[in-house]
Amino acid sequence: xxxxxxxxxxxxxxAGYPVLGLIVATVFxxxxxxxxxxxxxxxxxxxxxxxxxxxxNMESGLWPIHxxxxxxxxxxxxxxxxxxxxxxxxxxxVQSEDGVIDFDISMPNSKGKPDSKxxxxxxxxxxxxxxxxxxxLEAVAKEHHIEDLGDxxxxxxxxxxxxxxxxxxxxxxxxxxxxxxKQMGETLINAAHEICPxxxxxxxxxxxxxxxLMDE
Length: 216
What we know:
Layout: E1 2-4, E2 10-12, E3 20-27, E4 33-43, E5 47-57, H1 63-75, E6 84-87, E7 93-96, E8 102-104, H2 121-143, E9 153-163, E10 166-176, H3 182-195, H4 197-202, E11 207-213
Parallel strand pairs: 10-11
Antiparallel strand pairs: 1-2, 3-4, 4-5, 6-7, 7-8, 9-10
Helix pairs in contact: 2-3
């Protein structure tokens, strides 16, 4: 069935299941509308594709926003994929497709890990977030004409917390940037937080604290 969206744009819904839209537009000269072909993808047990055709009136004022979103979608490109499989949940095992990551999983307690050779999702997340954020710092440093960050580092601390409504995560990123002053360090950290894919993924979902570490 169809449900009305914003203005004359219509969206297909599949019995309440979330859908992802891939929009391809064709602009016809001399016409007052843009023809949108939308591949709506829903994943239940497999991927099902359906095509919906909708028209957006150019006079509605909505088409520039959708056209900008369209450009962003068409510019997306997958650079690479990484795959890992967990068996047994938080008391199980995790292994990456290439076997580089191959660890037992255990939940730490107040005394630390019950198995010193095991890991946990938060430790893996900390490793990934700190590395990704460090890469973002390198990128924004070049934009600010800083070629050498020296022996810089990023330490991510991921907290596994519990409240009345359930469990939640909280992150702290401590960045050490020895070759820049406080003002530039804060500028770089804030800029990195805007472009880091992990920061984008967690934004408005978990609290992330940003700290600049300075030499005394």
